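Sample pair:
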Amino acid sequence: MATSMAAAAPEGLKPVPGDGGLPFLGQTLSMLRDPLGLAQRRYAQYGPVSWGKVLGKRMVALYGPEAAEAVLVNRDKAFANGPAWSFFIGPFFYRGIMLMDFEEHLHHRRIMQQAFSRDRLRSYQKAMSPSITRGLDSWQPGDFKVLPNFKQLTLDLAMDVFMGVELDRAQADRINKAFIDAVRAGLSIIRYPVPGGRWRRGLRARRTLEAFFNEHLPAKRADGGDDLFAALCQAETDDGHRFSDEDIVSHMIFVLMAAHDTSTITMTTMAYYLAKHPEWQERVREESRALGKETLDFEDLDRLVSLDLVMKECLRLVAPVPGLPRETVKDTSVLGYHVPAGTMVTISPNVNHHIADYWPDPDRFDPERFSADRREDKIHQYAWEPFGGGVHKCIGLHFGGMEVKSVMHQVLLRYRWTVPAEYEWPLDMSTLPVPKDGLPVQLERI
């Protein structure tokens, strides 16, 4: 039965409608099984603002670009990242940049921004290309699973470009597993370290990652380098503030997770839709061939126009971070609804990217919707929001685009891949969106 979240709202504001769902579980199981379907049903039933219960907690879901703008722009500083993200991933990614707010967040972001300057990106690009080549040398034609191979490649790139270290396969697998366990722990139904549970594995993963970065920190402080780890060690504000060892370790854990997970998801999504739409695969391949070079230079990134369209459409269809939670630190309102202090709210890029009022035929793969003569994303500033927005907009978005294009350029020149005509990937949305079957394709060397 539908009820409002509050018996009374301040004059001129409406109480938030919604329902609590199942006892204790609320809508948790539906969210884990089909979050997009659940959100679309509730949007149709309640409109852009409604409350429900997830993981035992009452939350307000905000749908549509107008609601997203209110939260992400955050003009009255009513919405905080830290308490919201801490509920999901705090024990595993605490002191990450995304879990900070207001003055502290601004202070850390100003220091960290130096690691993503144009000159730094250029140096990362230079280091990345030979590492991509080495990684792709190990790919074998035939039956091939895209997801684990992209995940291994992006982790290897993160180690090379962000840390300046090479790991043997056993070390890389151990660190990769730690990142996976830390991410998956965030949506544990049982949020206590019981033996064999996700939460306990997440806590163990955090300890593994801390030990790994602390082991390499002294040498990086002393020797420097062109990698992100060195950049964070060297960065300081105009008045001399630098990161502590603890802050560097926490930022590295968070940034490496964000970098290699989101890039993996984006490239896997691109591989799926390019397999389903071979005419687009050939189009972007011909564009890469026209450059006449096996690896990209920094100046080439803007020349891959069709690949850019595909990347943007794939970020729309499958947002790598499907939900953005916040918690209100004071009473506020969204679209005329009263949202009291202490309320968890969530924005859903994945839902907003599939609203037919903004995206005609929203489930169809149509990269041209981002072309200069259409620009469907311009209907509203927050209609397309895969990187969030406002002061918390993804700090590594330019690095991510550079990495995705650099990898896909080399893949397209080396390989062609196909899936059976009737194949539809089984997308697991229980944490970050990945294909349950790893995306099996038939890989052919060109």
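The chain has a mean pLDDT of 91.
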